[in-house]
Amino acid sequence: MISQKLKHYLIAFGVPVLVLFIISLFFGIRSWRDLYSVMTVSFIFFLPFIAGALTVYLSGVEKIKSVAYRLFAPWVTIFIFFFITVVTAFEGWACWLMILPFFLVISSIGGLYGGYIKSSKQKRSGQINISILILLPFFTTPIEKMIGTIPGQYEAFTHIDIHAPADKIWSNVTRVREIKSGEDKGWLTHFLGFPRPIKAELNFEGVGATREAVFSGGLTFHEKVLSYDDKKKMIFSIKAFPYEIPSTTMDEHVVIGGNYFDVLNGTYELVKLNDTTFRLNLFSHFKLTTNFNFYASWWAGWIMKDIQNNILQVIKYRSEHE
Predict the structure, then answer these.
(1) Is 157 helix (H, G, I), strand (E, B) or coil?
(2) Strands, E, within the chain: which ranges?
(3) What is the Cα 167 distance to its own chain's centre?
(4) Are residues 85 and 127 in the same domain?
(5) Which of 146, 176, 211 corresponds to the end of one domain?
(6) Rounded distance, CA 34 to CA 193, Å?
(7) Rounded to whole angstroms, how far apart are CA atoms 194 and 302?
(8) Do strands 220-229 and 233-239 pair parallel, antiparallel, or not at all (unpaired)?
C-alpha cells in the first residue's frame, strides 16, 4: 500500500510533471508548427506558470499556508521535469540550462497564484481557474503565431591587448592553425556542450577572400572578406548551413544558421596603443528570430562573446610567445 504522505507527493509533483509532458509533446509535433511551437512566449511563460500553480493547488491545505512553500515547491516540479527530459533526450541540455532561470522565477509566480486559488473558499471556482489556465496556451499560441516574429539584430563586442608586433598579430588573425584542446578557454560554450574552434585560414589576403572556420562536431562557418585593410581591419560575412551540422552536434533550437539563431558578420580591428602594444577588437553581428528576443539575446550575446574571447586568447598567446 502507498502511504498517505507518498500519495500526496505523487499528486502534488507527479500530476504537474505529467501535464507538462503532455503540453510539451503537443507543442513539439512538427506537422503542427504553423499553430504550435515551443519557441513561443505562450509556451515558455505558461509551462512554468502552470507547473507552479498546479503543484501548489494539488498540495495539502496546511502546506500552502507557507509562502516559502508556494515559492519553492514548484522548483521541485521543474527540476523533475528537467531531469527526465534531459535523460530521455526529449530536450537538449543547453536549451534547458538557458531557460531554467526564467522557468524557476515564473514557476514561483505560478505557485503564488495556485496558493491564492487553493485558499479561496470557492472550490468549484478554483477548479475552473486551474482548468482554464492549463488550456490557455492552446488558445494564445495560435494567435501569437499569426502575429509572427520580428527578427532582431545584435552585436557582441570583445577585445584584447597584445604585446607583439602588428605583422605577427595579423598573421595569427588571418591564419589560425589547429587549436589544441588545452588552448581552448571557452568555459561557457564548453559547459553548454557547444562545438569548440579548431582552425581557420584565409585563401588569400584581400577583398573576396574566403575561409572556413572549422569547429568540432561538424560545424563550419563559411566566411567571405567584404573589406580588407592589411594589418588594420578585416570585415567578413559569416554563414553556417544547418544541413551540414550533424543533428547530434547542437539542439535544433540553438543551431547556428537555423530558424532561430544566425551569425551574420564579423570584424577584426587592430589598433595601436603604444610602441609595444596593440588592441585587437573582434565583434560580430547576429540575428535572433524568436518571440522572446528580450531573454534569448542575453544568452546569445554571452555565447558569442565567449567564442570570440576564446579566439582572442589564442591569438594573444601565439603572438606573444611563438
Answers:
(1) strand
(2) 152-162, 175-176, 197-201, 210-215, 220-229, 233-239, 261-272, 278-288
(3) 37
(4) yes
(5) 146
(6) 30
(7) 13
(8) antiparallel
- Which amino acid, residue 164? A
| pLDDT tens profile 67-112 | 999 999 999 999 999 999 888 877 777 788 889 999 999 999 999 9
Output the pLDDT for position 246: 57
For residues 271 and 277, give the distance between their C-alpha atoms in angstroms, rounded to a whole number.
Answer: 9
Residue 37 DSSP SS3? coil
**Concatenated DSSP letters for 222-233?**
EEEEEEEETTTE
Picking from 44, 91, 315, 309, the residue whose alpha carbon sits closest to that of residue 189 is 309
Do the Cβ atoms of 62 and 5 come closer than 8 Å?
no
CA distance 184 to 182: 5
**Domain containing 68: what range?**
4-146
Domain boundary among 127, 146, 165: 146
Question: What cell numbers appear for 262 in the block?
Answer: 544566425
Cell of 162: 597584445
- Residues 56, 116 contacting (CB under 8 angstroms): no
